[in-house]
Design goal:
Its EC number is 4.2.1.161. InterPro entries: BABR_hydratase, CruF, CruF-like. By secondary structure, the chain is mostly helical. It is about 70% helix and about 5% strand. The chain has ten helices and four strands. It has a two-stranded antiparallel ribbon with strand order 1-4. It has a two-stranded antiparallel sheet with strand order 2-3. The longest helix is centred in the middle third of the chain and has 26 residues. The radius of gyration is 18 Å and the shape is globular.
């Protein structure tokens, strides 16, 4: 079954990693600009389905590594993500005062049910990217962990301005980073630190590196992230956020996994 899933992703890499985010960016911008009529505009099932499709390379790539220890860790992190979002919506801590402005699908106590699908893969992508780019230096926790935490926060510098511009959520008090307050990024430092520490503790890094040797598509979800959110930010004139997205694109190229016809080049 794992082999079949791997082949399915390999055969559809361009569609999943490029076509889906480009089409998604167009549909999201069209929804925000009122060019799509209800119920097509920001249709929550389409949002969740599209996200799952773009996440599929990461999910399939990580699947063989999820033993009982990792499954318990990921489940705990899903609960943590719900808990901190629940607190944030009601108290403004740690992200600042915000609220969801569109329907993101079914909710649990006001928190979107799909939250783990939106958040946890971002941390996994950052973790994989840092492992590949740091090489041997990633063996040192004092290098690895701050790098991954910083990468997660930098990803939010791309995500949050684009999401605010689209109207996914809003900060009533505004903020200096394209309407996003600095408290949001401070909150992401906390969220990223907890999540990265747990993932680092429950994942078998040796098995993960072995898997990355043969799974060239594991970071394709980050390709989708860069294309979708950089395009959205560029459309709305959030050029700083778009530039950070471009830096992630440069980092992805540095992993030597995205040459035509997208082979895995061993060192």
């Amino acid at each position: 079954m794992q082999g079949r899933l791997d082949d399915l992703i390999r055969e559809n890499r361009f569609t999943v990693a490029v076509v889906f985010p480009v089409v998604g960016a167009v549909l999201l911008v069209a929804s925000a600009e009122g060019l799509l009529p209800p119920p097509l505009a920001f249709e929550p099932f389409m949002l969740l389905l599209g996200t799952l499709v773009m996440r599929s390379p990461l999910l399939v790539g990580m699947a063989p590594l999820i033993d009982r220890r990792a499954a318990l860790g990921v489940t705990a992190l899903a609960g943590y993500a719900y808990a901190i979002e629940f607190v944030g919506l009601r108290t403004g801590l740690p992200y600042g005062d915000f609220h969801y402005a569109i329907d993101l699908g079914p909710t649990v106590a006001g928190v979107p049910l799909g939250l783990p699908v939106f958040f946890l893969p971002l941390v996994c992508n950052a973790y994989l990217l840092c492992l590949l780019l740091l090489g041997g230096r990633a063996r040192a926790a004092q290098v690895r962990l701050p790098a991954v935490i910083g990468t997660v926060v930098a990803m939010d510098v791309v995500l949050d301005p684009g999401a605010v511009a689209l109207g996914f959520w809003a900060y009533p008090g505004g903020g200096p980073v394209y309407g996003v307050p600095l408290s949001n990024f401070a909150g992401w430092v906390l969220s990223a630190t907890v999540t990265v520490l747990v993932l680092d503790a429950v994942l078998d890094r040796t098995a993960l590196l072995d898997r990355l040797e043969t799974c060239e598509f594991a970071l394709d979800d980050m390709v989708s992230f860069v294309l979708l959110w950089s395009a959205v930010n560029a459309y709305f004139g959030n050029w700083g956020a778009a530039a950070v997205g471009g830096l992630f694109g440069v980092g992805l190229l540095g992993t030597d996994r995205f040459d035509v016809p997208l082979p895995l080049r061993r060192p």
